[in-house]
Design goal:
mainly beta, 47% strand
Amino acid sequence: QVLFVESGGGLVQPGGSLRLSCAASGIAFSIYAMAWYRQVPGKQRELVAGITSGGGRTNYADSVKGRFTISRDNPKMRLYLQMNSLKPEDTAVYYCNTMSTTGTMSPVGSWGQGTQVIVSS
Protein backbone atom coordinates (compact mmCIF):
# COMPACT_ATOMS: atom_id res chain seq x y z
CA GLN A 1 0.00 0.00 0.00
CA VAL A 2 1.02 3.57 -0.60
CA LEU A 3 2.38 5.26 2.50
CA PHE A 4 3.56 8.80 3.08
CA VAL A 5 5.29 9.86 6.29
CA GLU A 6 5.76 13.57 6.84
CA SER A 7 8.21 15.13 9.29
CA GLY A 8 10.03 18.35 10.10
CA GLY A 9 7.23 20.51 11.43
CA GLY A 10 7.39 22.50 14.61
CA LEU A 11 6.90 25.85 16.29
CA VAL A 12 8.61 28.85 14.72
CA GLN A 13 8.37 32.61 15.01
CA PRO A 14 7.11 34.75 12.14
CA GLY A 15 9.91 35.22 9.66
CA GLY A 16 11.50 31.92 10.58
CA SER A 17 12.18 28.84 8.45
CA LEU A 18 11.42 25.14 8.44
CA ARG A 19 12.25 22.26 6.11
CA LEU A 20 9.65 19.54 5.79
CA SER A 21 10.40 16.02 4.59
CA CYS A 22 8.17 13.29 3.18
CA ALA A 23 9.18 9.64 2.96
CA ALA A 24 7.21 7.64 0.40
CA SER A 25 6.82 3.88 0.03
CA GLY A 26 4.64 1.45 -1.88
CA ILE A 27 4.62 3.62 -4.98
CA ALA A 28 6.63 4.08 -8.15
CA PHE A 29 7.67 7.43 -6.78
CA SER A 30 9.76 8.59 -9.71
CA ILE A 31 6.87 8.50 -12.20
CA TYR A 32 4.47 10.64 -10.17
CA ALA A 33 4.15 14.36 -9.88
CA MET A 34 4.10 15.18 -6.18
CA ALA A 35 2.78 17.98 -4.02
CA TRP A 36 2.62 19.43 -0.56
CA TYR A 37 -0.84 20.17 0.78
CA ARG A 38 -1.95 21.85 3.98
CA GLN A 39 -5.08 21.97 6.07
CA VAL A 40 -6.29 23.99 9.04
CA PRO A 41 -9.25 23.02 11.24
CA GLY A 42 -12.56 23.83 9.61
CA LYS A 43 -11.07 24.52 6.19
CA GLN A 44 -10.52 22.49 3.04
CA ARG A 45 -7.15 20.97 2.29
CA GLU A 46 -5.27 23.08 -0.23
CA LEU A 47 -2.38 22.47 -2.59
CA VAL A 48 0.56 24.73 -1.78
CA ALA A 49 3.38 23.42 -3.98
CA GLY A 50 3.79 20.86 -6.74
CA ILE A 51 6.65 19.30 -8.66
CA THR A 52 6.85 17.15 -11.79
CA SER A 53 8.06 13.57 -11.66
CA GLY A 54 11.59 14.46 -12.69
CA GLY A 55 11.74 17.62 -10.61
CA GLY A 56 12.16 19.91 -13.58
CA ARG A 57 9.06 22.02 -13.11
CA THR A 58 7.34 23.41 -10.03
CA ASN A 59 4.25 25.38 -9.19
CA TYR A 60 3.11 27.23 -6.08
CA ALA A 61 0.02 28.71 -4.57
CA ASP A 62 0.10 32.49 -4.75
CA SER A 63 0.13 32.69 -0.96
CA VAL A 64 3.53 30.95 -0.71
CA LYS A 65 5.20 31.95 -3.96
CA GLY A 66 8.65 33.35 -3.38
CA ARG A 67 8.84 31.94 0.15
CA PHE A 68 8.53 28.16 -0.28
CA THR A 69 10.62 25.81 -2.42
CA ILE A 70 9.60 22.25 -3.25
CA SER A 71 12.18 19.64 -4.25
CA ARG A 72 12.52 15.87 -4.52
CA ASP A 73 15.10 13.11 -4.39
CA ASN A 74 13.78 10.24 -6.48
CA PRO A 75 16.41 7.61 -5.58
CA LYS A 76 15.62 8.19 -1.90
CA MET A 77 11.87 8.51 -2.57
CA ARG A 78 11.78 11.76 -0.64
CA LEU A 79 9.93 15.02 -1.09
CA TYR A 80 10.95 18.25 0.61
CA LEU A 81 9.51 21.68 1.29
CA GLN A 82 11.77 24.53 2.32
CA MET A 83 9.68 27.22 3.98
CA ASN A 84 11.17 30.65 4.56
CA SER A 85 9.74 33.94 5.80
CA LEU A 86 6.97 32.06 7.55
CA LYS A 87 3.76 33.86 8.43
CA PRO A 88 1.09 33.06 11.03
CA GLU A 89 -1.29 32.17 8.21
CA ASP A 90 1.06 29.33 7.24
CA THR A 91 0.03 27.55 10.43
CA ALA A 92 -1.46 24.21 9.36
CA VAL A 93 -0.90 20.50 9.16
CA TYR A 94 1.17 19.77 6.07
CA TYR A 95 0.76 16.61 3.99
CA CYS A 96 2.44 15.14 0.94
CA ASN A 97 0.76 13.13 -1.79
CA THR A 98 0.63 12.77 -5.55
CA MET A 99 -0.55 15.45 -7.94
CA SER A 100 -2.02 15.26 -11.43
CA THR A 101 0.13 16.11 -14.40
CA THR A 102 -2.00 19.23 -14.82
CA GLY A 103 -1.22 20.48 -11.32
CA THR A 104 -4.43 19.58 -9.49
CA MET A 105 -5.04 17.62 -6.33
CA SER A 106 -4.99 13.93 -7.22
CA PRO A 107 -4.01 11.83 -4.21
CA VAL A 108 -3.07 8.18 -4.46
CA GLY A 109 -4.06 5.98 -1.56
CA SER A 110 -4.67 7.47 1.85
CA TRP A 111 -3.30 10.58 3.49
CA GLY A 112 -0.48 10.33 5.98
CA GLN A 113 -0.51 11.75 9.49
CA GLY A 114 0.91 15.05 8.32
CA THR A 115 3.32 17.28 10.19
CA GLN A 116 2.16 20.30 12.14
CA VAL A 117 3.58 23.75 11.51
CA ILE A 118 2.81 26.52 13.99
CA VAL A 119 3.97 30.05 13.24
CA SER A 120 3.50 32.26 16.26
CA SER A 121 5.32 34.81 18.36
